[in-house]
Specification:
By secondary structure, the protein is an alpha+beta fold. It is 27% helix and 26% strand. The strands form three sheets. Strands 2, 3, 9, 10 and 11 form a five-stranded antiparallel β-sheet that branches. A four-stranded antiparallel β-sheet has the order 6-5-4-8. The protein starts with a strand and ends in a 9-residue tail after the last strand. The mean pLDDT is 90.
């Protein structure tokens, strides 16, 4: 199996775009454990390079996330009123869903990187549908069409920046251990809010996926409007 260069297969033109995410920064220990196993495998498979952080760079822990929906329009073309409208449109649906937890793990090889499996809780599909509906309400029906396949939640630990032969890496991932020597087990992750972010997966400076944390908008789950007395 080959993991393929995501940067060459991502959107064009390059640049940041609006995304609706569930952020999962608490998964850093899990990501670190899997990367340790990947690095050990990499040292035996590619002793002469390329270096793993170059060919398969990790997502910085604070930017780990589950993608709910995104808009294929450069953020530079999105007005501040449209950003605010996205939050206003998605809020009523999120108010009807109370915070919950999902199970995540194990890691596996995907087409363009290493991902962590996320249990397909129906509430995640509800959040994704509400996110797509909010995008359509603000940007038109063609902006976020309904997918032909069921929503597949996942968390990307690393994106490929080169085509890499990973035929034996999958089995190595199953043997990843925590520092205490215990095999990694699925973990619970809280789902409490949706973040609307200006995200760039491949910034021009090569710094890796990130979003503008100063302009992010966070919409809480289960937050009903206060009724006037």
């Amino acid at each position: 199996m080959w993991v393929l260069n995501f940067q060459d297969r991502a959107w064009s033109p390059r640049g940041s775009r609006p995304h609706l995410y569930l952020t999962t920064p608490g998964l850093e220990p899990l990501q670190r454990a899997y990367l340790k196993r990947i690095d050990a495998w990499w040292a035996t498979q590619y002793p002469d390079g390329p270096a793993r952080p170059t060919a398969l760079p990790r997502v910085e822990p604070r930017y780990l996330h589950i993608t709910l929906a995104w808009l294929d329009v450069l953020s530079a073309q999105v007005t501040s009123q449209q950003w605010e409208a996205l939050a206003e449109q998605v809020a009523p649906a999120l108010a009807q869903i109370e915070p919950f937890e999902v199970m995540v793990g194990p890691a596996f090889l995907a087409t363009v990187g290493v991902e962590v499996y996320v249990d397909p809780d129906p509430r995640l599909a509800e959040l994704a549908a509400a996110s797509r509906a909010a995008i359509r309400a603000v940007f038109g029906d063609a902006a976020a069409p309904e997918p032909s396949q069921p929503f597949r939640p996942h968390i990307s630990l690393a994106y490929a920046a080169a085509d890499v032969d990973t035929e034996t890496l999958g089995s190595a991932l199953t043997r990843a251990e925590l520092p205490a020597g215990q095999l990694l087990r699925p973990q619970r992750v809280p789902v409490t809010a949706v973040s609307i972010v200006d995200n760039d997966t491949f910034p021009e400076d090569g710094g890796g996926l990130r979003w503008d944390e100063q302009t992010s908008r966070v919409v809480q789950l289960g937050r009903k409007p206060v009724e006037p007395r």
